[in-house]
Design goal:
With 135 residues, the chain is an alpha+beta fold. Helix content is 39%, strand content 24%. The N terminus is likely disordered.
Length: 135
């Protein structure tokens, strides 16, 4: 059992943590985010197929090659990529059913996956060294 002094200290720590979380949230609210749709590739051999120019993804064949999994808010493409790493958005396997439902096998965004910048209406495909616009 906590004595009154320890109890008061525990309450103070909780208040300080709450204040810190609020400060972090307020800071994030200042940063401009925008909506992205996350499209994950269905083809598990995709990096090999992507080497052939005629097999590259286009907006017209995207629905055949990719599955739109969810929408997120992010500052930019790099931030969206970080958000979509399995350890960040599904640290305890929360997304397992969603991934399985869409017939996919990977949880983390990787080469070949696509982000749709909804504000600019542009599609960006994750490449080995950055992003390539999909047309």
């Amino acid at each position: 059992m906590l004595n009154p002094i320890s109890k008061g200290r525990a309450l103070q720590v909780k208040i300080d943590r709450t204040r810190h979380v609020r400060t972090m949230v307020d800071a994030l609210n200042v940063v401009q985010t925008k909506p992205y749709n996350v499209w994950m590739r269905r083809d598990h051999d995709y990096p090999l197929a992507w080497l052939k120019a005629d097999d590259r993804t286009s907006i017209t064949n995207m629905k055949r090659t990719h599955e739109c999994v969810l929408s997120i808010l992010a500052v930019n493409l790099g931030h969206a990529f970080t958000i979509m790493q399995g350890e960040n958005w599904s640290p305890e396997g929360e997304a397992r059913d969603l991934i399985r439902y869409h017939g996919l096998q990977h949880t983390s965004m990787s080469v070949g996956d696509i982000l749709h910048d909804q504000e600019a209406d542009k599609y960006w495909q994750c490449d080995g060294s950055g992003w390539v616009e999909v047309s």
